[in-house]
Structure to design on (352 residues):
């Protein structure tokens, strides 16, 4: 049995790490392709090191581009790589352009695809990742879902029940695995702080929207320290639009462990990321999501997540609620127990 994993962008790395580890335990043959969608040291290499992901067998080095250019470039280069490696199955992760590109190549070559983190839906087709999710799920032979809503979404879209496996959350596997290491790191900040990440096109590509959010963060910085590790896309936008960030502690993108160490001691997290909504729910840290919807509804229904959308008054009110001891309390979703990767490995061993 030969399984080929495809990763490309930062959020893929934490999802693939536990699956690679669990499949290695089974003794199966596996290889790893990095598409190079993310290529900066602090967006890629440092994650491989900290998560102990093996060196990729192939790096397609596609780099940046428009969605069409990037996806097409990955498809062309990945086709050559997959034909050389002849895997029995290709595993793709999450919802980035690398995920859909690899799935499409495999579907056309009749190589079975397994999708890790299948079934998530924001029901917002304006979000590039939503298109990637829907298409990847339609092309996959085996679909591993993190929560029961994923199963329901897939069944509604006509995916056969026997293809769907509720395995839990692989991102949380990585968190559980590395939390003790992150907690042992000195935080150096006894003060209260809000930890911020923003990179969605809907929040950062429009100067008016980005200015409004940054102005709200500046106002919040009067009540608590605001720490903002900035994604390259957001940094470019702030520079291009000439926006003011004095008062906000702007930093370069962080490594997994650096970010987790800050996250687990944060007073509140303000984000538009998908994975961080889940991590805060696991950690019991209040999360205010600057999006009108989420593909991870369990984080709102039972976790600590609150959608504030673009309502900056709500962002302020909810932050003050946290500061005054009125934070939303959450519980842990089922199967977020650190063993999702092992469940995936054992299903694959049975199937292949
Ligand atoms: C991608 C994913 C998104 C994920 C995010 C996490 C898609 C459609 N989007 O968005 O789902 O949440 O990654 O980070 O796949 N850049 C660098 N250095 C890098 C990588 C990117 O400078 O290492 C710059 C690029 O030049 C580009 C911008 O960041 O201008 C955006 O990169 P891209 O990979 O296209 O999309 P993300 O916004 O990172």
């Amino acid at each position: 049995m030969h399984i080929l994993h495809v990763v490309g962008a930062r959020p893929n790395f934490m999802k693939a790490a536990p699956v690679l580890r669990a499949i290695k335990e089974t003794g199966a043959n596996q290889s790893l392709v990095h598409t190079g969608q993310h290529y900066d040291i602090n967006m890629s290499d440092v994650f491989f090191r900290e998560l102990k992901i093996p060196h990729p067998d192939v790096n397609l080095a596609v780099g940046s581009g428009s969605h069409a250019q990037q996806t097409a470039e990955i498809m062309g280069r990945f086709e050559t790589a997959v034909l050389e490696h002849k895997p029995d199955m290709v595993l793709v992760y999450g919802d980035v352009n690398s995920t859909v590109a690899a799935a499409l190549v495999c579907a056309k070559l009749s190589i079975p695809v397994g999708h890790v983190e299948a079934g998530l839906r924001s029901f917002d087709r304006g979000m590039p990742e939503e298109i990637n999710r829907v298409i990847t799920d339609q092309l996959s032979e085996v679909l591993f879902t993190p929560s029961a809503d994923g199963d329901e979404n897939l069944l509604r879209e006509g995916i056969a029940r026997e293809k769907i496996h509720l395995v839990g959350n692989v991102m949380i596997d990585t968190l559980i695995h590395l939390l003790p290491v992150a907690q042992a790191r000195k935080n150096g900040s006894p003060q209260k702080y809000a930890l911020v990440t923003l990179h969605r096109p809907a929040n950062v590509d429009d100067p008016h929207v980005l200015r409004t959010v940054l102005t709200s963060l500046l106002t919040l910085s009067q009540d608590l320290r605001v720490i903002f590790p900035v994604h390259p896309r957001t940094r470019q936008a702030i520079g291009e639009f000439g926006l003011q960030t004095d008062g906000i502690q702007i930093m370069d993108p962080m490594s997994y462990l650096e970010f987790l160490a800050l996250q687990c001691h944060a007073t509140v997290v303000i984000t538009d990321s998908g994975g961080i909504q889940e991590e805060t729910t696991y950690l019991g840290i209040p999360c205010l999501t600057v999006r009108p919807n989420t593909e991870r509804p369990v984080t709102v229904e039972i976790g600590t997540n609150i959608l504030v959308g673009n309502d900056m008054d709500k962002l302020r009110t909810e932050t003050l609620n946290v500061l005054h001891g009125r934070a939303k309390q959450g519980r842990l979703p089922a199967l977020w127990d650190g063993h999702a990767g092992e469940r995936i490995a054992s299903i694959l061993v049975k199937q292949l």
